Amino acid sequence: MAENPGNPVVRVRGLVNRFGSQVVHDGLDLEIRENEIFGIVGGSGAGKSVLLRALLGLRQPDAGSVEVYGRDLRHMSEAEHLALVRSYGVTFQNGALISSLSVAQNIQLPLREYFSLTEHTLTALAELGLSMVGLPADTAGKYPAQLSGGMVKRAALARALALEPKLLFLDEPTSGLDPISAAAFDELMLYLHSQLRLTVVMITHDLDTLFRTCSRVGVIVDGRMITDSLEGMLQNQQPWIHEYFHGARARAAQHG
Amino acid sequence: MKLSLEREGDDWRLLLSGDWSLAATAAVQEELQALPSTLHGSLICDWTKAEATGVGPVWMLLTRLGAAAAGGLQVSHVGNPPHTLQLLERLQGDRHALCAPPPEPSSSDIEEAVGNLGRWVVLQGTEGRAAIGFLGRISTVAREIFSRPRALRPSSLARHIYETGVTAIPIVSLIAFLISVIVAYLGAQQLSRFGADIFVVDLVTIAVLREMGVLLTAVIVAGRSGSAFAAEIGVMQLNEETDALRAMGMNPVELLVLPRILALVIALPLLTIIADAMGLAGGGLLSLVNLHIPLPQFTARLRESLSPTTFWAGLIKAPVFALLIGMVGTYRGMQVRESARELGRLTTVAVVQSIFLVIFADALFAVLFVQIDF
Fold first, then answer.
1. Burial of B341 (0-12, 13-18, 19+ CB in 10 A)
2. ipTM score here?
3. CA A112 – CA A123 distance, rounded (Å)
4. B124 vs B119: CA distance, rounded Å
5. Pick from A7, A36, A252, B241: most CB atoms within 10 A?
6. Tens-digit pLDDT profile for residues A39-81
7. Which residues of B touch A121 (CB under 8 A)?
8. Which range of residues forms the domain containing residue A112?
9. Domain co-membership, B289 together with B226
10. Chain A contact set for B98 (CB, 8 A)
């Protein structure tokens, strides 16, 4: 297990994604290093979710390569790809908890699928998952429809962490949360990041989250990615980036 | 061996070795069970030989040690303990055991049966009230059409007539044709024994026009459109689309329910006429091929066997069946709440109930028609 930050975990080279004649990504390059929290930003329709789907291997890019842990997704067998996906944790924008299962069953779902564990062990691990994301024990028996937005996000995070991933993808983890819940989620993420030594890739529009948690930021502009530290981004003169980081909301977030 | 417990004077030393990754959780748990249930003094966990320590197994160990430490046990860790230990120990500190489900209050079988019966009756009562309420809302909206014709929503009505009626023509025709061929074929085998071949025409005519044309069509439409109504409206419920309509001051019953029911009331009689025609065609074809009854003779006999009411006795049932199917489908769709499983369950209920109601209503019609000699 290489602990020193800096090793590239994900490396994307010349990624091209098209929908018909509409080009979303036009030679996008990206490198995500071990142990960082990497924020992906871009306007609506800039292709953030498409990029995430390409990273997860849910979408075959039209050109370019995606390497995870130094291995090209294109040259992987189905079984290797499955094994790789198991080492990811992913949360989707709306939680994507299975609605017919309780929270505890959602957390246990991948564990049940891959390991043969006793009920006792599964209960203990569900307990672990819940306390890791700070959910009270009585949420275990509840169904997703009975949870608030913030609790759904936390439960989804608990499920994503169930298989003990080293690499965590979060799609808009704080969208739709009130500022207090969002701030609490930021702190939780930072805490888990440091304690579990995770590499986190996060798509977010939440400037507060970005400023609080991310060590580096990638901005998708015109189908390409501009990557820099947060300080560097603030100096960037590219019009969209400048507007993004110096608009009224950005000023409020920086001084808030 | 993942664990070995050794005595060191008054203290304990727990040697942890081998694979401690998540995949080994089951094995770790098994060995944890073998530890003595209570320990005293102090215990040193030696992690020197443990590899690839995952969160889950460490959590299991801490939980187990926590339980064993009830009598006062000092636990310390040496030899490169896992980096997640600090987090997990903190979580153990403020952990609350998942509440086991409250034990079922023990009661005798009879009490339980009575309780279940009561619950069922109450449930049926509320269901019945809700269904009548739904009927009431539909009636209110239907009345509005007269004062406000725009509420009829012609474009939506046309779309639903197309989807429930026009697209169902091929399957309805095919099934009516085949079933009528089967009836004629079986009838011919029996009747030819008495030399009464010609009565096959009567059999087919009356069976198809009075019963089978409309009943088959209704069952097919219940399967096709009843389920579609329930699923379509159900997904709109899950997406809060119906709430959005209400919030904009629009009535989902007017927008979603009524056009579907009306479309079905219009389409089902027309489909029945097509089914009737195809059924007679099937009977005619079989008579020609199998019984060598030429077509002019078939039609002549057909006219004789018809009473003035035969055709209408079938057709008049179609709008009633359409109402039943449409109302059950949309009602079940509007009931969907919360989850994808509800959607599936209620779609199934919609189809099963509408088919049952159609057949039940058909039985009532049969008795009624006999009584009034229709």
1. middle
2. 0.78
3. 11
4. 9
5. A36
6. 998 888 888 888 888 888 888 888 888 888 888 888 888 888 8
7. 25-26, 29, 60
8. 98-164
9. yes
10. 104, 123, 126-127, 130, 137, 140
